[in-house]
UniProtKB/TrEMBL annotation:
Record bears the keyword S-adenosyl-L-methionine: yes
Name this protein carries in UniProt: Histidine-specific methyltransferase SAM-dependent domain-containing protein
Organism name: Aspergillus saccharolyticus JOP 1030-1
Record-stated family: Belongs to the methyltransferase superfamily.
Pfam families: Methyltransf_33 (PF10017)
UniProt-listed GO biological process terms: methylation
UniProt domain Histidine-specific methyltransferase SAM-dependent: residue ranges: 39-352
One of the record's GO molecular function terms: methyltransferase activity
Length: 353
């Protein structure tokens, strides 16, 4: 009997990325390095009346490693929820996607989850040009090397990376000649990453991707996962800001700031990390706050942070099916299929335009 690797053969006309080197091909799609100037973003956020620092501080290579360590914690329920849904529904998800598609994952992705989806597509003989989009070249290269090593025996799956922001990706789809030959684009957005944005921001971003695909004459859809847990005690345990891997990840932002500025701007001993569960807004919010008044003389001007004053840096929405439906409609999509865990605390949503 022939193996999957022996029977699946790609259509040469479909493969957008013709390279066959051992390392995945990375394309730098950044329009402006200013968009990734985290130091300026920190300065700008600290000068506002409601202070904040960019959440991107969490997502360099070291931060991604700490996040992956957090996902191994027993209290971090999203990982097991996603795995449950994917293992039970991977073939149905694959059946719902076109036989030929470009699959663009927003973020480096979790190797295990991405591997499940790509393997299911491959076993059905579907031809996929996969791209992962991330701002960290090193994290992207490391992740894609591992993914390509796992997928080498599936010739219908091609793996590449795009270095840049989500906005850079929108522009790339609009103007990249190669995408004009793609029959369709599926955006993969897992790990509840969609809910690191506000509902309005998520809707606007998905709408921008839809418009870019319309401009390029390409059909598009989203496969998005979203956390709908409303159990406050469960959330507090999962997002514990004081102990364990969750604490290490959440405090990584202030350590990153110190590296950016080459000084201990945030002295670890005098800064707390706290979280709030806003039930009405259905989201976890995370803040840094000092135990004493702190004053800095920065290039942009003097900044004072008073004792207990909160600096926002991280959001994780907890959106149910109704809320996801509203977000989809506002961005020009509709929910066409939903797959949930047994407790209906987590869902994967296929959004069609």
């Amino acid at each position: 009997m022939a193996t999957i690797c022996e029977t699946i053969q790609p259509s040469p006309a479909f493969l957008l990325d013709k390279h066959s080197s051992k390392d995945p091909v990375l394309q730098d799609i950044r329009k402006s390095m200013e968009l990734l100037d985290l130091k300026s973003g920190v300065l700008s956020g600290l000068l506002q009346s409601q202070k904040s620092v960019p959440s991107l501080l969490l997502w360099d290579e070291k931060g991604l490693k700490r996040f992956n360590e957090w996902t191994e914690c027993p209290h971090y329920y999203p990982k097991s929820k996603e795995s449950e849904i994917l293992e039970a529904n991977k073939h149905r998800m694959a059946e719902a996607l076109p036989s030929k598609t470009v699959l663009i994952e927003l973020g480096c992705g979790n190797l295990h989850k991405t591997l499940i989806i790509l393997s299911a597509l491959a076993t059905q003989g579907k031809e996929v040009q996969y791209y992962a989009v991330d701002v960290s070249e090193s994290a992207l290269r490391t992740s894609l090397r591992a993914l390509q090593a796992e997928m080498n025996c599936f010739p219908t799956i091609r793996i590449s990376g795009l270095i840049g922001t989500y906005d850079d990706c929108v522009d790339w789809i609009t103007n990249n000649p190669a995408t004009a030959h793609a029959p369709s684009v599926t955006f993969l957005w897992v790990g509840n990453s969609v809910a690191n944005l506000s509902k309005a921001e998520a809707s606007n971003l998905m709408g921008s991707f839809r418009q870019a695909c319309c401009t390029a004459g390409i059909q598009c859809r989203f496969l998005v996962s979203a956390d709908a847990c409303t159990d406050a005690s469960k959330l507090i345990k999962a997002y514990n800001p004081r102990f364990g891997p969750s604490c290490s990840f959440l405090r990584h932002g202030i350590q990153h700031v110190n590296r950016l500025f080459g000084m201990s701007l945030f002295e670890d001993a005098i800064w707390d990390c706290t979280i709030e569960y806003d039930r009405q807004a259905s989201e976890i919010l995370a803040f840094y706050s000092p135990k004493v008044d702190v004053a800095w003389a920065l290039d942009s001007g003097p900044v004072t942070v008073h004792q207990g004053e909160m600096i926002f840096f991280f959001r994780s929405g907890k959106w149910n099916e109704e809320q996801m439906g509203n977000i989809a409609r506002q961005s020009g999509f509709q929910v066409s299929q939903v797959w949930k865990d047994s407790q209906e605390e987590y869902g994967f949503y296929l959004l069609s335009s």
